[in-house]
Amino acid sequence: MQIEQEAIVEGILFAMGEAVAVGSLAEALGISREEVLELVRHMAAHYAKKDRGVQIIEVEDAVQMCTKKEMYEYLIKIAKQPKRHVLTDVLLETLSIIAYKQPITRLEVEKIRGVSCAHAINKLVEYDLVCELGRLDAPGRPLLFGTTEEFLRNFGVQSIEKLPAPNPKQLEEFRQQAEHEMSQKLDV
Fold first, then answer.
1. How high is the mean pLDDT in each 10-residue block of the chain (188 residues)?
2. Which of 135, 75, 80, 68 is nearest to 107 (CA)?
3. 9, 107, 179, 186: least CB-packed within 10 angstroms?
């Protein structure tokens, strides 16, 4: 029973990431505050070993799981390097098509772009800017893609309905460029 209770406390402390009141743990486990403190102190002794990177500390009337101070120099090497996703022109073009035409299949995106988009869509899914919305009710049941809340946050847009409207003059220029490029390809 103690091992199960330790696993529960460990899971709670890990998931919360901040100090948890001893009373809350006692209530969750259905045991007394004294039993919680005894359990936590047993766990803290286990985590105090040199082969562990985390520890359990008591803070006033609460307990917290945190990184040992000996790990700080390693932690800061990672924490200083924020994850940066580079959005290339290909990714931006693919993302804009998905944003304005969603829900949309990969084949429809490829038809608009004129080239394969599998890699670009996979990258956008990996960056959490695009997600699978379901499947189209058509032969082969292709996946439908759309943008995520992360997309809205990153681009400062409240909702898809609030995306800026495309400039008609630019759309006409793009259409003419595309027609010109297509005519050159056909001449070759």
1. 86 90 94 93 90 86 87 80 77 94 94 91 94 92 93 82 82 76 68
2. 135
3. 186
Task: Say how many C-beta atoms besides its own lie within 10 A of residue 16's C-beta.
Answer: 12
Q: What is the pLDDT of residues 90-116, one digit of tens each?
A: 999 999 999 999 999 999 999 988 899
φ, ψ for residue 19, nearest 5 deg: -65, 140
Per-residue pLDDT at 188? 58
Q: Are 101 and 93 in contact (CB under 8 A)?
A: no
